[in-house]
Amino acid sequence: MTASAHASEPAFRPTRPASMRRDRRRVLFWSYVFLIIFVIFFLTPPIYMLITSLKTSAEISAATNPWWVFAPTLQNYVELLTSPVYLTFFRNSAVVSVVVVIISILVSIPAAFSLSRMRFWGSTTLATGVFLTYLIPDTLLFIPMFKIFAYLHEVTGIEFINHWWVLIIIYPTLTIPFCTWIMIGYFSSIPKELDEAALMDGAGYLQTLTKIFIPVALPGIIAATIFAFTVSWAQFLYPLAFTTSADQLVLPVGIVTTLIKGDVFNWGQIMTGALLGAAPPLIIYAFLMDYYIAGLTAGATKG
Amino acid sequence: MMKKFLRRKSTIAFAMALPLLIIIASLVIYPAFYSMYLATLNKSMEHFVGLDNFVFLFKRETFWMVVKQSVIFAVSAVFFKALIGFFVAHFVHNVPSRGQRKWRGMLLVPWVIPPAMSTLAWLWLFDPSYSAFNWIFENIGLDGVNWLGNPYWARFAVILVNVWVGAPFFLIMYLAALKSVPEQLYEAASIDGASWWQKLWFITLPMMRNIIAITALFSLIVTFANFDIVRVLTNGGPVDQTHVFATWAFQLGIASSDIPLGACVSLFMLPILGFAAIFILRDITQRGNEA
Amino acid sequence: MAEVTLRQVTKNYDETPAVRGIDLDIADKEFVVLVGPSGCGKSTTLRMIAGLEDVTAGDILVGGTVVNDVPPKDRDIAMVFQNYALYPHMTVFENMSFGLRLKKVAKSEIRARVENAARILDISALLERKPKQLSGGQRQRVAMGRAIVRNPKVFLFDEPLSNLDAKLRVQMRIEIKRVHQKVRTTTIYVTHDQVEAMTLADRVVVMNDGLIEQVGAPNDLYHTPKTKFVAGFIGSPAMNFVPCKLEERAGGVHVRLDENIAFPVPSGREPRYRPHLHRSDLLFGLRPEHILERRSQLEPNLHAFESVLEVTEPMGMETLVYFLVNGREVCGRVNPKAGAQAGAPMKLVADLNNMHLIDDASGQVL
User: Fold this and answer.
1) Looking at the domain assignment, is residue A283 inside a domain?
2) Contact between residue A18 and residue C59 where contact means Cβ atoms under 8 Å apart
3) Would an 8 Å CB–CB cutoff place C214 in contact with chain A?
4) Which of C25, C30, C211 best tests the A interface by mutation, with the highest count of A CBs <10 A?
5) What beta strand segments (E) does A137-263 contain?
6) Is the Cβ pair C7, A4 closer than 8 Å?
7) Which pTM value belongs to this model?
8) C277 confidence band (pLDDT: 50, 70, 90)
9) Which CATH superfamily is domain B60-290 in?
10) Chain A residue closest to B176 (CA)?
11) How far is it, in rounded angstroms, from Cα C165 to Cα C143?
12) For B238, what's the count of Cα atoms within 13 Å in the CB-facing half-sphere?
């Protein structure tokens, strides 16, 4: 019965704080505690890079508190950003990365479209095969590639080794298989009815691709682009193996090899160089974090 | 006749996939096989010496050290990455969803920074004279650690940096998997009488079993073939104690210009990769059939 | 004894009230249905009884004990979820025995209880299958089996039939009633479907916007709704509401719907309605099943009238006819052979014994 039938009962008692709510709050408290601990763990190196980059050589060698800057200076930044050597590194990296991204996207989108949408004999095997080749690491391929380039040099006279543009040939092997894989995933999630509607409207396969799929799969394309750029920018092994002269180096290799001259390590500059080298991916990440993560969860395997 | 062939769907499809296939075939598959051929040549690459290079390696103590180090490195790194990723994913999942984004954002940073760059930071943090960590230790009365000079600490350092770089990846994957477990299952389990760890054991882990296996397998492959971190941090030192296959192959093949030997070393990664690839393949096809 | 009592139970999400202090007494072995539109608070109430939601204020008692702070597993309840919530990686047997396994009950006892429940629900053949191999109806049964096995004081059902197709829903409804008759456990059932409420419940609790509108046996709610909401919620097609006025005329109090239609109020009700003679916000309520085709004999309190039909819906066993009165669309249920035609006028009759007069401002039935 709706109306309170127990007239003799006292008015309702206010509830004690539910023990369940207390439990939940405890869980939340400890979650935050551990999250803070891990954030400290994960962010310490980059923050330390920043701190060191603002120090003068004098302050560093004076071995004062390494975690604090007493006389901050932008000297390191100025020196690097005006150094033609460093700027060459940056330029080489930028050009290589951008070109490789373009190549990757141009190759992987049609390939993904064909492998996911257009059933032809062996398409599923090919798709899995493409994915498996991604598992053949660069650390296996760099030696034969070195020999192949040397051989091509003898045959064609073109110098492959020690030129930064050789990287543009090599990097796509790292980016394309996975970009294709991401795109296959996105394309597969587009309902078949869209194809059929386009077909009824009179579109050919190329038109379906450009006018329907690409716009709808744009998030996937962005994710693939970001992935390709980040991988290209961060590459270390191939450029270390294939380029040696200072003007041919890309950023990661440049910083590691040239800024460490002999036994004298100018850590202020090294950290600045490293931080600036990490900047482009970090900036992209800051603005496009969700695409970044989307690319990751499509099955990424870096690390 | 020719025109019809060109316009056929399967032809167009094949043509669209062709650049991909050409690139893979010429720059991945061919070099992989070529490296097997290279491994059978002598140092100047003029004569065929069969399996001499392999035999030579088997007799060298450094080789076995590299094998041991590579395996320890890969297995322990993957284990800790998975563990950390799993736990931190839970913590992030517990936080109300509005706040999760910023935590996720901060925790993913190690993965975003190029490993070569962040390893430099760690190199500086481990510096024999100026280590910031040692500074803290000394200030609280402990001894400083010879991070990169002592072989055991060097191995620890290399694993630590790899875990630092790779754990965020596990975090993201596990977080996505955690979110995909329906909340009602946990509610039903509450009513059935499960405690928090029983829920973890009977519901969370079984539901996440697939993703745990696949990420671990992938990571095993990638970590096993890792180059950047070891190269920058220790370059295999001290005394070759932290060399993994990739860095040692580089040392022999490029730095010492013995290409066949280098190729030989790097080929030893293949069995492990093949082994892991089989499991991954089996899992993918299994999931494809289940779907 | 497994009676459930709610005393001034309130639930607020941040500042938004979801349940506003409701009181309810559910007797042992009773089948009570909480029914109402989406957002009325019925699911929230059920979840508070289950312990899946905290109670902001008020008390919930199961078997005489206050259970506000008691975790779900200790409340001796079992719940059947809308989406079944079966553990996908366990077999049917493991799903049903999960709770018992956690309590470390002896294996022989587990087997006995699971097989007993499976027999009641006719799923004995499915015990070794996994949920994904089962149909929707089978999964629902397994979910019920899981609840039965626990032998709880109270069964809680949270819209269990919403995910099934119409035909299956009817079958499962009968199943649930049959199981209740066999197992005789107090049951609290939540649904938005008033047909389920009417057919399953010993008593129906109609909720709206966090409050209980009315509690009563299905027939009571049907014949004597207390508020406009209940009157319009129970019964399908819904009750017709037409604005009206009361007039004093020669024969007594009359209800006037428009210029053409006016009729005397049934004699017994005159004293009840007379005080409201001059109100302007009255509604006349009559169910479609009480508007019929005119037959030759006119009994008392049957008012004959004629209207042009807008739409007819032949349902086979009857034909629904729609026409306008005072600008409002009114529905009637006539014999399919009565010759109803859209666009043509039809002679109809209204059974005023079942009329209701409603105060539109307060929503109360007068």
Assistant:
1) yes
2) no
3) yes
4) C25
5) 260-261
6) yes
7) 0.80
8) confident
9) MetI-like (1.10.3720.10)
10) A297
11) 17
12) 12
